[in-house]
Recover the amino acids of this structure.
């Protein structure tokens, strides 16, 4: 997958914004973490089952369910489908870059002022919450805001990455089914229109043939059975 480097200046489109006060950042982070904590409900009460590749109710079961809830309803239902899918793909790219090169610092941070990050993670609903759950925390360096990954959350990153792959695969397959259904509906509608058109043309042809037969019959009746020429009397 293509590397997504978010901490280099050429990627910035908007001018860097002034960092928020520390208290404001801490309050925002606390609010995000509080929302994550509130979503940790009893799975048995909502009947969500684990995927087949995982053992049910193992040590990471609750964490997987937490990530799933952050995606649905957190991201999928709160944003347009196209935006939600783009955001999930960006999160996956960031996570996979870290897992592939865990010692490369450039993959462990992103700027919220970067144009792509702003579009896919900052502006949509629920996406920064997912990044925080993966292990990113907001910091300020040289008056520039960053989100940096904390290495102690590497297990959360692995779990969250697996859930991103799982959900993206499900959503892609769902979209493919919807596209096939739309194509079938379109083909059926075209076949129906063609059938109506053919019936109309057949009916028109039948009427034309009937008119021709009736015209020929009238012509025969008009010229036949009248007798010979009248006789002349002297």
């Amino acid at each position: 997958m293509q590397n997504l480097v978010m901490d280099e200046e050429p990627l910035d489109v908007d001018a860097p914004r002034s960092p928020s006060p520390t208290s404001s950042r801490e309050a925002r982070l606390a609010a995000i973490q509080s929302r994550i904590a509130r979503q940790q409900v009893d799975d048995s009460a909502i009947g969500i089952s684990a995927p087949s590749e995982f053992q049910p109710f193992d040590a990471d079961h609750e964490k997987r369910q937490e990530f799933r809830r952050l995606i649905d309803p957190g991201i999928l239902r709160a944003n347009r489908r196209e935006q939600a899918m783009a955001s999930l793909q960006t999160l996956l790219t960031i996570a996979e870059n870290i897992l592939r090169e865990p010692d490369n610092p450039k993959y462990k941070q992103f700027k919220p002022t970067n144009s792509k990050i702003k579009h896919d993670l900052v502006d949509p609903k629920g996406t920064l919450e997912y990044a925080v759950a993966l292990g990113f925390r907001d910091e300020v360096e040289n008056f520039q805001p960053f989100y940096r990954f904390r290495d102690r959350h590497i297990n959360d990153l692995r779990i969250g990455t697996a859930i991103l792959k799982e959900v993206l695969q499900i959503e892609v397959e769902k979209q493919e089914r919807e596209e096939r259904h739309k194509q079938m509906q379109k083909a059926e509608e075209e076949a129906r229109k063609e059938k109506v058109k053919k019936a109309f043309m057949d009916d028109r042809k039948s009427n034309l043939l009937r008119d021709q037969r009736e015209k020929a019959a009238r012509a025969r009746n008009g010229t036949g059975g009248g007798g010979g020429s009248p006789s002349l009397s002297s």
Remarks:
- The first helix runs from residue 22 to 38.
